[in-house]
Amino acid sequence: MTAIEATGLRYAYPDGTLAVDGVDVTVEAGERVALLGPNGAGKSTLLQLLGGLVDPDAGTVRYFGETTDADAVRDRLSVLTQNPADYLFNPTVREDLAYGPSQQDLSAVEVDRRVERVADQLDLGDLLSKPPFRLSGGEQRRAALASALTVEPAVLLLDEPVSNVDAANRAEILSLLSALSADGVTLVTSTPDTELVPHVADRVVLLDAAGEVAATGPTREILTDTDLLTDCDLRPPQVVRLFDGREDVPLTVAEARARLGD
């Protein structure tokens, strides 16, 4: 089943600058897709267009083969922007996590179950009674992600989910995203970080600096095409650069270690 089908998306900022121009994106249910591009390529805008947070100037986005109305499928579609404050606006973290499912006509018992389950997954149990502004930056990122997950979405769109977080929070978030994917959740991640992509995506939509799709393909195919990445003002992953020119180039440090150990 196709989870998201976007056709001919075009969007310009109020000053007339084109952010996205003629973009087609299709995401199948259960896929892990990265929107990869340099800063200023329109990745965040494209993610918001796909998530129905902003309306395109031209083009359409269809969800689950059913509708172009994102609000009609909010119980199956969550978007996590870069700003945790967009999701943390209640007096306590617990209330923020409960906000989404409480809008879904669920019982209080079910809402509490979801809050406790997601809090446990992201190690937020000791923070539930705290006001969000008392959390560290990494804790706020995890709490914002938790608030997006308590609606139990079928599709989760994430805008640079591990930027500006420490190693421990990064590992925790990536571990949860891997578990969500294993459970069949569709993941779309926007990032300029080629090092992150192998951990969050099996397929890449590569954007150039003009906000146009330069290439689409399997993660390995895109990340090992160093000339293509350079043309799009992106730095290939360090491991790819170290092994460039060899057969079956590793994408991550873990893959490289395994290769050298063989």
From TrEMBL:
Question: Source organism's superkingdom?
Answer: Archaea
Q: Identify its protein family.
A: Belongs to the ABC transporter superfamily.
**GO CC annotation terms, alphabetical:** ATP-binding cassette (ABC) transporter complex
GO molecular function per UniProt: ATP binding; ATP hydrolysis activity; ATPase-coupled transmembrane transporter activity
Q: Which UniProt keywords apply?
A: ATP-binding, Membrane, Nucleotide-binding, Transport
Compartments, as annotated in UniProt: Cell membrane
What kind of membrane protein is this, topologically? Peripheral membrane protein
Does this UniProt record's set of keywords contain rRNA-binding? no
InterPro entries, per the entry: AAA+_ATPase, ABC_transporter-like_ATP-bd, ABC_transporter-like_CS, ABC_transpr_CbiO/EcfA_su, ECF_ABC_transporter_ATP-bd, P-loop_NTPase
For this protein, the record's SUPFAM superfamilies field holds: P-loop containing nucleoside triphosphate hydrolases (SSF52540)
Cited function: Probably part of an ABC transporter complex. Responsible for energy coupling to the transport system.
Protein's UniProt name: Cobalt transporter ATP-binding subunit
Q: Which residues form the ABC transporter domain?
A: 4-234
What organism does this protein naturally occur in? Haloarcula pellucida
